[in-house]
Design goal:
It is built from 20 helices and six strands. The protein is about 45% helix and about 5% strand.
Length: about 500
């Protein structure tokens, strides 16, 4: 609520983005700390802007901090390298705005237990991201409960702050109607300008200097993470890659979007921006501006913006109403009940985790989908529903299917671990209109065929080639995936 915010934030036009996370009293300090975990951009970043406005009001500089641990779930070369490439550009863009940014990469010869708490000890206030899923959700909550400085969470992921939309929206159509009424009010933002010189004081640690690509590769290699999941060459990190994709969106994707968006064999129909959105290298406001500048036809523009603003922001909105957006129990009772009623059905298509991970099942179309996750770190949107639904038949129970889908999504996809991808998985598992008839294994959860690609001209050849792509072997867990949030393996 804005009435609990300091005046500098309560009077900010984007105040609905901000909420108070603890009851700590206002105090002095050396700086305002801005702790970023996922909104890794130095421009059009409401978390940084809020920190600057508060720092200006208090007469204090802002210190942006980004740390990367080795022990987050599914830590790998792919994720580490993408995150560090983003963090390197974050620092450069902060410096261009006159803001100090420091980074820390956890590894054997460089440990700093409790570092964010020590940085907060000398902060007048701390600004964090308001993320409703995965690690950022519970880390921010736990941090705020223990921090002695005031902590404020700022939404940087959505064009329209969820607080503006109010509570109780129960459907996608209802969300779309309410969102469309106000979205124009949030299309234009201005980076806040610091009035205090950049922080140059003492720090309780030695920051890492993120150098060129070779230096980042060496830094990743020194970390105790999963080195079998390699970086995805088609999705380089950094703001230059964002600019390239925005150019491609304007010049190539939108002009062909109406006819190509559902054809996975034609990559011209996909923007490939979801990994950059997930890790906050770009925000929706910048993408909307690129769409407006493209001058594409109304049908293509409307559909693309509906995917970005209605569906994506609906999943973010809905995640905030869920205790754990990535847990099986997020599914509505009707979906869980029908899946449970068919849990004892024969499953003649069971597959091993090894076959699923490596895209070596008996289903060629599914293998083509999984190879995109395994090799590219991303999957075409039109393939994801088929991929997710087939996992229900490949695994021994609905719970095992959900855990396996989340495991494959979160470990291999650069846009996994996200409210949108969890929302898509839930949609595949029955958080949608029921099917037309009751089926074995699925019950009333609707089925999905591979016809959208197999029946196209050249579709069978594309699927065969995509499924046959060679891929390196990756390590496998000792036991099948389980839902870590239901078994207590992850704190919430």
């Amino acid at each position: 609520m804005t009435d609990t915010l300091p005046p500098a934030l309560a009077e900010w036009p984007e105040a609905p983005r901000v909420r108070t996370l603890n009851a700590a009293a206002a105090r002095g300090g050396a700086y305002v700390l801005c702790w970023l975990q996922q909104a890794l951009r130095g421009v059009d970043n409401p978390v940084i802007d809020a920190a600057i406005l508060l720092g200006n009001a208090l007469g204090l500089p802002v210190l942006v901090y980004h740390g990367l641990r080795e022990d987050y779930p599914y830590a790998s070369d792919r994720l580490h390298r993408f995150i560090l490439g983003a963090s390197r550009d974050l620092k450069a863009d902060c410096a261009a705005r006159g803001i100090a940014c420091v980074q820390f990469v956890d590894r054997a010869d460089h440990r700093e237990p409790g570092l964010v708490y020590r940085l907060a000890d000398t902060a007048a206030a701390v600004l964090v991201e308001d993320q409703p899923a995965f690690v950022a959700q519970w880390q921010a909550k736990r941090f705020a409960a223990r921090c002695t400085a005031p902590v404020f969470a700022v939404n940087a992921a959505c064009l329209v702050p969820p607080a503006v939309l109010g509570d109780g929206i129960a459907s996608t159509s209802g969300f779309r109607r309410r969102h469309e009424k106000v979205r124009d009010d949030w299309l234009h933002g201005t980076d806040a300008e610091p009035t205090i010189p950049a922080y140059a004081g003492s720090l309780p640690f030695t920051p890492d200097m993120l150098g060129d690509d070779a230096a980042l590769d060496a830094l990743v290699a020194a970390c105790a993470i999963d080195h079998s999941v390699l970086p995805a060459p088609d999705f380089p990190s950094g703001r230059a890659a964002v600019r390239d994709r925005l150019d491609r969106l304007r010049e190539t994707v939108l002009p062909a979007y109406a006819g190509a968006r559902n054809d996975a064999s034609r990559p011209v129909g996909a923007s490939g921006l979801s990994p950059y959105l997930h890790f906050g290298l770009v925000g929706p406001r910048e993408i909307v501006a690129a769409v407006a500048a493209a001058g594409a036809g109304k049908a293509a523009t409307t559909k693309f913006l509906d995917e970005l603003l209605s569906w994506r922001e609906w999943f973010h909105y809905k995640a905030r109403t869920l205790r754990v957006p990535e847990a099986f129990d997020r599914l509505p009772p009707k979906a869980r009940d029908t899946l449970a009623a068919h849990a004892v059905d024969p499953r003649p298509e069971l597959e091993t985790l090894d076959a699923m991970v490596h895209g070596e099942t008996a289903d060629e179309s599914w293998n083509a989908c999984q190879k995109q996750f395994l090799i590219d770190g991303w999957m075409h949107n039109n393939l994801r529903m088929y991929w997710a639904k087939r996992i229900i038949a490949f695994t021994p129970s609905p719970e095992a299917a959900w855990a396996t889908a989340c495991y494959l999504n979160d470990r291999f996809s650069l846009d996994g671990r996200d409210p949108s991808t969890y929302g898509n998985l839930a949609w595949a598992f029955g958080d949608a209109a029921p099917g037309h008839r009751e089926l074995p294994v699925l019950g009333w959860v609707s089925a999905k065929s591979d016809g959208s690609i197999r029946h196209r001209d050249g579709g069978p050849d594309w699927l065969a080639a995509a499924a046959a792509r060679p891929a390196d072997r990756v390590t496998l867990p000792d036991a099948p995936p389980v839902d870590p949030y239901l078994t207590g393996q992850v704190p919430i």
